[in-house]
């Protein structure tokens, strides 16, 4: 395996400062290697080729290291003696657990992923149960890993029980008997009563806790930061919420929810990556996609232009190169076997022999095509002669040769004949006109002598002279045709020069029209080739039917055993793969003379425009336009530098992120990009602010509290502030405030609040739960928590 560098430090994307930054800032890591003074990218301003970053699956945990105590130490500790509350911040991606603490900067004792893996070990035959980070220890564990949450709602209390068992085991709580600690847990906004009743049943019946309380993680985070009036914007793993906090109370009646979170952004990035690299040699798993999103994505801040303008700007390869970041996946270097001189020589000889056979095959195909054209021309001339000799009534009563050959009018037949004559002239000039002619014309004295006047040797010599005379006559005709073509070309050149000098604008317009027509013809031929290469395309199947019709019509149709079929009848030709192999052979043998002629015509038109039209430059040529398009595609897929090398195994295992870096976080403002029919964060914030009087609106807009791990994109706060300010009047100040620690502030708020008197007022005891049931628990919890938490 290729060496993998150490894990990248920090939680912000590479090349950006944590918290905020500009999308124009560059990656500060060292370049790939020393480069010459002038390189392919040296003309770019502030551009350094990015260093491939080794792919990872997760960031390092910033929680404090914790050594689980033994059961004896647990019973002897003040935690057990004081029955200190157990704080569980149960998120859909991460579970944080620990004992209540009044320290504002305390950290949970236990932090692990919300995953449970239950499977059977095939080698030992034992049932294996893993939770937390251990659920990703190997392949079988990853394949069986499950989460108790569906989105942000608990759907499996069995898996939740496994997670709580794992947390209690790590905290040193004895597994036998009841848990003699009150529990504070988080839940999602507008959590249905049924999942909450199942959770309460698990806590009271299974663990026997004396009391329990639930709350929203975003409200606990605001409590840890000491806020009274704020508009909470929280975006987590499964969704985003906007909750107004007025006078220390969470107004849930005016709260809004967006069904987009970190998991949706990760899935969106994973889909974009799979579409971009459909043949990527390794599998990109969701953990790796989540790391790429956290490390490299950023929110575009529209200081002078919109997000759409930013994407259009990236259509320039030079600008796209500055956004490029490279992720290196593991790969195995295959050592190439060095060949000896004898093997290299044998390989060279095989290549020469293959080239010779290919030239012979090409020459044979050209001769066959030439013969076919001569036969077709002779046949079409016979068709015209037949019409000229016969009377009109007799011709109409005959088999109608024009209709039979597929010609609608005589003009179509005449046009086809002229094309064949022109093609034959070109072929003869290519095949016969290149030989040197003798200074004096050769004589062939025996050609006119009758055979009975010659002996056996004379007859043989006469046949040889007849063949030589036929070749000489053909070359003479080709030479005369060449001279006539040169004369016509010279006349056309003089006329063209006169038009250009008399009316340059009209001349330029005419030549540009011819140039665009040639380009359209070339594009149409390329598109048709692609369609004919596809067996399922309509063009390929129509051509197959045409070939089958011609084969049936030109076969032997005489006699009682004739197999000629009617036009339009289907004989099943093309249903088997063998038929399509014949079709491919016919397609590969097609003459490319017209394509070569069109290419020459296109080059001639470009040269004329470059010489005489000052508005037409080298950048306007078709090759330059195609090169720019290919450059954009290459930069998008493979980066700007170093050049793409298909034989480089390391480059084949690289993913380039450029447009995706700004596109993935943009779904929070434009959910339609990810296929979600909802309003964005700025629009939801505007809807919430409209529900209050102006004085309350000013207090909320001036204190937009940002929390949640999915808000850690660079420029997130600036973009939210700018987009909300654009929807408010000038007299309403808009300001964003970020949580001190978006990851652990919710747990700290729960920890601090559980030690206050308000905690006892909102707790639901086991006796209340047994007496009044889940419906009472739901109503009482919602009223007491939102009303009493911040009193």
From TrEMBL:
CDD domains: ASKHA_NBD_Arp5. InterPro entries: Actin (IPR004000), ATPase_NBD (IPR043129). It is found in: Nucleus. Residues 334-368 form a coiled coil. Gene3D superfamilies: 3.30.420.40, Actin, Chain A, domain 4. Residues 1-37, 426-512, 550-582 are annotated as: Disordered. Residues 14-24 have a biased composition (Low complexity). Its main location: nucleus. Keywords: Coiled coil, DNA damage, Nucleus, Transcription, Transcription regulation. GO terms for cellular component: nucleus. It comes from the Eukaryota. GO terms for biological process: DNA damage response. Pfam families: Actin (PF00022). Residues 449-460, 472-504 have a biased composition (Basic and acidic residues). PANTHER family: ACTIN. Belongs to the actin family. This is Actin-like ATPase domain-containing protein. It comes from Ceraceosorus guamensis.
